[in-house]
Specification:
Blueprint lengths: L1 E6 L6 H12 L3 E3 H10 L3 H12 L5 H12 L7 E5 L5 H13 L6 E6 L2 H15 L6 H15 L1 H9 L2 E5 L4 H12 L1
Parallel strand pairs: 1-3, 1-4, 2-3, 4-5
Helix pairs in contact: 1-9, 2-3, 4-5, 6-7
The protein binds adenosine-5'-diphosphate.
Length: 187
């Protein structure tokens, strides 16, 4: 059973690594960022609401992302495992997740934290901006996303360390090296 969270600052590579690991374990990857971008693209009411936060590099309100995760985890393909990529990002989201998992009698196996220094993150995000053209990959928004990460998401490292399921991985290195390290901490 693999019920996993991938955590890390914007640009740490959690989405990319989650892609590889999900293939390996044959479990769905649930990316709140992807789900939100899809909603924005389709101009759904949720997308219209989320867009202003995303464009500014702010977190979308907890109630919105918690709703997304609650619905998604209720899908049958999640019963064998999942990778949450980009959720939770606040203590409130982590507590809501804990409640959802208790109600559905699911337990988290591990929280993988990918650590990357700030300057490296800014460089990666700026070069990704050129390649993918994501609306929120510009210098000002990047600074705000990093600030939000440091203020709101960073405390979750300690939160999950206290729960005894935190696995720390160095996010600097080649894609393959990092995948190997993740696989080794997951045992
Ligand atoms: P990154 O990790 O590079 O910031 P994501 O694709 O994970 O990229 O997220 C993009 C944006 O989507 C975030 O800046 C935020 O506005 C929104 N978002 C994604 N996940 C969450 C979440 N769990 N809570 C609040 N906002 C979120």
């Amino acid at each position: 059973m693999k019920k996993l969270i991938f955590m890390g600052p914007p640009g740490a590579g959690k989405g990319t690594q989650a892609e590889t690991i999900k293939e390996k374990f044959k479990i769905p990857q649930i990316s709140t960022g992807e789900i939100l971008r899809e909603a924005v693209k389709n101009s759904t009411p949720m997308g219209l609401e989320a867009k202003k936060f995303m464009d500014a590099g702010d977190l979308v309100p907890d109630v919105v992302v918690i709703g997304i995760i609650k619905d998604r985890l209720a899908e049958p393909d999640c019963s064998k495992g999942f990778i949450l990529d980009g959720f939770p990002r606040t203590v409130e989201q982590a507590e809501a997740l804990g409640k959802i998992l208790r109600e559905t009698k699911m337990d988290l196996d591990a929280v993988v934290n990918l650590a990357v220094p700030d300057q490296e993150l800014v460089n990666r995000l700026l070069s990704r901006a050129k390649i993918e053209g994501r609306a929120d990959d510009n210098e000002e928004t990047i600074k705000n996303r990093l600030k939000n990460y440091n203020d709101k998401t960073f405390p979750l490292i300690d939160y999950y360390r206290k729960e005894g399921i935190l696995k720390e991985v160095n996010g600097v290195g080649s894609m393959e090296e990092i995948t190997m390290e993740i696989l080794s901490v997951l045992g």
